[in-house]
Amino acid sequence: MVSAAGADCPEVVLDGKTVKGAKQADGTQVHLLSALLLPLGAVANQEEVDGKTNEIPMARPLLEPLPLEGKTVVADAMHWIQR
């Protein structure tokens, strides 16, 4: 979770990465979605993305426990969905 040092960070960046060399029991690769605090580069929250889904449905639950008021949340184009 966010420490007192991270409370002043103006940006939260969502970033997903496949962990090289890490595999599940079924042989699939481990994929993590992280919320990073800039400019610290610290991880505020992180969840494993289930192999049956992608990052999009994981983004909101990942951000919900974070204090986002007054912060800019940045994500790549994958997270932009037109409704």
Secondary structure: helix percent: under 10%
How far is the first residue's CA from the last residue's CA?
31 Å
Report the sheet with the most strands, covering strand number, pairing sense and barrel closure: 4 strands, mixed
Taking pLDDT < 50 over at least 5 consecutive residues as the criterion, the unreliable ranges are none
Number of domains: 1
Mean pLDDT: 86
* Tally of helical runs: 1
The helix/strand order is EEEHE
Let me know the number of strands.
Answer: 4
Anisotropy-based shape: globular
Cα-atom Rg, whole angstroms? 14 Å
Structural class: mainly beta
* Percentage of residues in strands: 35-45%
Order of strands side by side in the largest beta sheet?
A: 3-2-1-4
Characterize the structure shown.
- The chain has 83 residues and is mainly beta.
- It has one domain.
- Helix content is 10%, strand content 40%.
- The protein is built from one helix and four strands, in the order E-E-E-H-E.
- The chain has one helix spanning 56-63, and strands spanning 11-23, 29-38, 42-48, 72-74.
- A four-stranded mixed β-sheet has the order 3-2-1-4, with helices on one face.
- The longest helix has 8 residues, at 56-63.
- 10% of the residues are buried.
- The model has no long low-confidence stretch (mean pLDDT 86).
